[in-house]
Amino acid sequence: MKVLIIRFSSIGDIVLTTPVVRTVKAQVDQVQVHFATKTQFKGIFEANPYIDKMHYLGNSLWTLVGELRKERFDFIIDLHNSLRSRLIRLLLGRPSSAFDKLNWKKWLYVNLKINQLPAVHIVDRYLAAAAQLGVKNDSLGLDYFIPEKDEVPLAWLPPGFANGYVVYAIGAQHATKRLPVERMIELCDRINKPVILLGGKDDAGNAAKIKAFFDPSPESIPFEEGLRELNKKTIIYDACGKFNLNQSASLVRQARYVFTHDTGLMHIAAAFKKEIYSIWGNTVPAFGMYPYRTKFVIFEKTGLSCRPCSKLGHENCPKGHFRCMKEIVFDFYLP
């Protein structure tokens, strides 16, 4: 049997499909598992042992369709359920199923603040799309496999990090899913341990501001001894834009704790069963994309009549106050 799984984007959503990939491969007799995604996400599955063949969407949908037609799949599991993936299923003409995106229920919650969303994680909704193949949840959580060439040795890190560190994933696709930089600084100070900042090149500006705050300077020298007496231990390594995705995953895997916005690295951390401190702004865990099958703490400002204001995010707070991020209370203790 030959099965095609489709999920084109993005990092977190693709990582969340890994239980479907694994259970189909493990539970369906004599199955070949193929996966279709965008070219820029090929690294996510580079070392995944449960996938027999990858297919990539580049500039042409028709090129991909022509490639997929040659495979003559027995079944297609559409975990994107977009206009593009539905067109692929139509053109291939093979038996298929798709996961329920619950778009109208999300619309009700965002626009009318009526929450009719089921208390079901998106992974379990993905798995429901594979139920026709007799697949059941194996309760093993998410997968993320790092190629050996992308493992980051602790020796590469600056002094002070080899004996343990905390990762803070400061990025997110939309600004309203990220803390303001002054609150990022506050959080790093509260962590009070060596902190590696992870993110893309677009996050470099915020990372530089955070690092500058904690780095000793000529002006701070008179206060350094007092800071040591106050047991201030936050030191910053700015890794934003310096590592590829798999290398960043390696740093996450070796971290003691992970602080993260609602972003792809949160789900990669869940794959490694890290203890996660998850920060939510305009989006909400009720959408079903909170850390899966790992220990986690949610930081969010509840009770706001304007939240959630989007199922994805905005570049600026629609109300102008950004209370969902500015008023989060960081109440935690790291031993």
Overview of the structural elements:
The protein is α/β, with parallel strands linked by helices and 335 residues long. It has two domains: 2-133, Glycogen Phosphorylase B (Rossmann fold); 148-326, 3-Layer(aba) Sandwich (Rossmann fold), CATH 3.40.50. 31% of the residues lie in helices and 15% in strands. The chain has helices at residues 11-15, 18-27, 61-69, 83-92, 103-112, 122-129, 181-191, 204-214, 221-229, 245-253, 264-271, 323-326; strands spanning 2-6, 32-38, 53-57, 75-78, 96-98, 166-169, 194-198, 235-238, 257-261, 275-279, 296-299. Strand 4 (75-78), helix 4 and strand 5 (96-98) form a beta-alpha-beta unit. The longest helix is centred in the middle third of the chain and has 11 residues, at 181-191. The chain is globular and about 65 Å long.
What number is the mean pLDDT?
95
Q: What's the CATH architecture of the largest domain?
A: 3-Layer(aba) Sandwich
Q: How much helicity do the residues have? A: 25-40%
Provide the CATH topology of the largest domain.
Rossmann fold
Query: Helix tally?
Result: 12
Stretches where pLDDT is under 50 for at least 5 consecutive residues are none
Q: How are the SSEs placed, and which strands pair?
A:
Elements: E1 2-6, H1 11-15, H2 18-27, E2 32-38, E3 53-57, H3 61-69, E4 75-78, H4 83-92, E5 96-98, H5 103-112, H6 122-129, E6 166-169, H7 181-191, E7 194-198, H8 204-214, H9 221-229, E8 235-238, H10 245-253, E9 257-261, H11 264-271, E10 275-279, E11 296-299, H12 323-326
